[in-house]
Amino acid sequence: MKQLSDLAYLKLNKFQRFWYNFLMFLAAIPRWFVGLCKRIGRAVADFFIDIKDGILDIGRTFKQGNWAVKLSFLIFGMGNLYYGQIMRGLFFLLFEVIFIVYMILPSGGIHWLSKGNWFQTGATIGNQQGHLEYDPIYDTDKWIPGDDSVKVLLYGLLTIIFIIAFIWTWRLQIKQCRICMDITAKGKKIKSGKEDLKSLLDDQFHKTLLSLPVIGILAFTVLPIIFMVLVAFTSYDAAHDGYSNLFSWVGLEHFNELFDFGQGGLGLAFGEILSWTLMWSFFATFSNYFLGMFVAIMINKKGIKLKKFWRTVLVMTIAIPQFVSLLYVSKMFDSSGIIGELIRDMGWLPQSMVDAHQYSLWANPTSAKILLIVINIWIGIPYIMLMATGILMNIPADLYESSRIDGASPWQQYTRITLPYMLFVTGPYLLTSFVGNLNNFNVIYLLTGGEPLNTEIGSAGGTVVGHTDLLITWLFKMTLGSTDSRYYMASIVGILIFVVCAVLSLIVYNVIPSTKNEEDFK
Q: Is the N end or the C end of the chain the one with fewer CB atoms within 10 Å?
């Protein structure tokens, strides 16, 4: 779509401007995807170029290096020790010793790697199956433990990561040798261990400070994600728990099962749950956002009395734990609850629900979904109200005074001043709120538990599917809410949730003005 000039844009009416902005937003998405593909292509090309340059640098270092540098290709840190970097050399050498000892231990890295049968479709993860064996002393069957598939998979993954770290450290210490050779050739002095420590606490302090958070992210975020991805390619469930019965590699079998849209396949269930999840996240995010902003504007309006009282009343919903408030509200709207009985006695239930013997708003899919969104508004408005209050107080009052002098109506002030300012400041929040609502387990599970049941789909993923189930509640049912506990399928759903969140986040984050025009509102 051709972009209009500023003069042509100003000539458009409100409806035309809306559609122009909407079409420009849609047009920006393909351009962003093209730009993303180009960046990925450049990143891949740069990666291979870096590998080529690294190989050439390793070759030059070995060719030009002295005996200590050449020896460091086998014994870590020898080059550093030769050039006087005692502390670095000892650290490199210690890392190599730890790696070798770990790999050759009886229950070390080689042991776990040999039992993984990595990605051999049909092969079990672990070689020895646990079994019962008769014990004549106690005259009973005794359990003889074998391999544990979960441990084999986890420790095998850790070993692979350790090997990657070993290769990276080997390359790093070769690079350190090259740097020392270049510095010595120029007649300059090489940093000592004392100077290295001083640097870590001075000009390199940011690396020292970030080392622990990076290690924590790798250990508690990246590693579990990789483990979850690997589980998706296995038969890990209640019948194959890895201890009493080893689970095996199955390849893409379960992915095909999830995307099977035929009779009895999971594709229909997944499609319906995904569509409702996206719909729920959209309404739960923007209804809270605009209504919370409206409440904040009304409370901050001049002439409103008891401002602190109204804010306190709204914040009370935050103070009460959701586990208590949501369960209580759920019972209130039940057929035997206070509001449920009132609606039934007053004859406010639709005749179609009465004919179907559905005497509760939770029993009908449409009314249950609407009620979920309304109750979520009651929960979410206080958060938005508090946030919007602080932002509204920072909007310059001169803007409103100037607009009033120019004859702007309250609606024009809102659409031209308040809303653009709010969207600019809270753009990242809207994104995180949308993603958060995609995974909003508490509201759905505590209010409906995913019900009413979707009889058209029946049982999917080893458990019944409800009309109000989100992907996250469906994942929970497949793991802890059913007898067969299909962990592999829950892992696949978790991967798909991650993909949906990542794609939406990347698209929106790259088109919202908060990140594109950061200087506009300063």
A: C
Model pTM?
0.78
Residue type at position 417: I
Distance CA 470, CA 442 (A): 11
Give CA–CA dist 240/224, Å, rounded.
Answer: 20
Is the CB of residue 369 less than 8 Å from the CB of residue 469? no
Q: Whole-angstrom Cα distance, residue 87 to residue 366? A: 68
Q: Which residues contact 515 (CB under 8 A, 6 or more apart)?
A: 427, 428, 509
**Distance (Å, whole) CA 230 – CA 488:** 9
Residue 508 has phi, psi (to 5 degrees) of -65, -40
Nearest to 443 by CA among 478, 415, 413, 473: 473
Burial 234-265, CB ≥16 within 10 A → b, else e: bbbbeebbbbebbbbbbeeebbebbeeeeeee
3-state helix, strand, coil in the chain (%, to 5): 70, 5, 30
Contacts of 451 (CB under 8 A, 6+ apart): 362, 368, 466, 467, 468
For residue range 442-482, list pLDDT tens digits in order: 889 888 888 888 777 766 555 678 889 898 888 888 887 66
Band of pLDDT at residue 257, cut at 50, 70 and 90: confident
| Cis peptide bond upstream of 382, omega within 30 | no
Distance CA 438, CA 501 (A): 8
Q: How confident is the model at residue 134 (pLDDT cuts 50, 70, 90)?
A: confident
Helix (H, G, I), strand (E, B) or coil at 323: helix
In DSSP notation, 21-76 reads HHHHHHHHHHHHHHHHHHHHHHHHHHHHHHHHHHHHHHHHHHHH--HHHHHTTTST
State how far the Cα of 437 lies from the Cα of 285, in Å rounded to an integer: 7
For 78, the token pair is 């020898």
Q: Where are the domains of the chain?
A: 6-49, 65-251, 267-515
Q: How far apart are CA 285 and CA 470, in angstroms?
A: 15
Question: Would you say 494 and 475 are in contact if contact means Cβ atoms under 8 Å apart?
Answer: yes
Half-sphere exposure in the Cβ direction for 167 (13 Å, CA): 8
What are residue 133's DSSP bridge partners?
142
Pick one of 1.10.3720.10, 3.40.50.2000, 2.30.42.60, 3.30.420.40 as the CATH number of 267-515: 1.10.3720.10
Distance CA 414, CA 408 (A): 10
Among 445, 429, 449, 440, CA closest to 497? 440
Average pLDDT over residues 157-176: 92
- The token duo for 461 is 């993923």
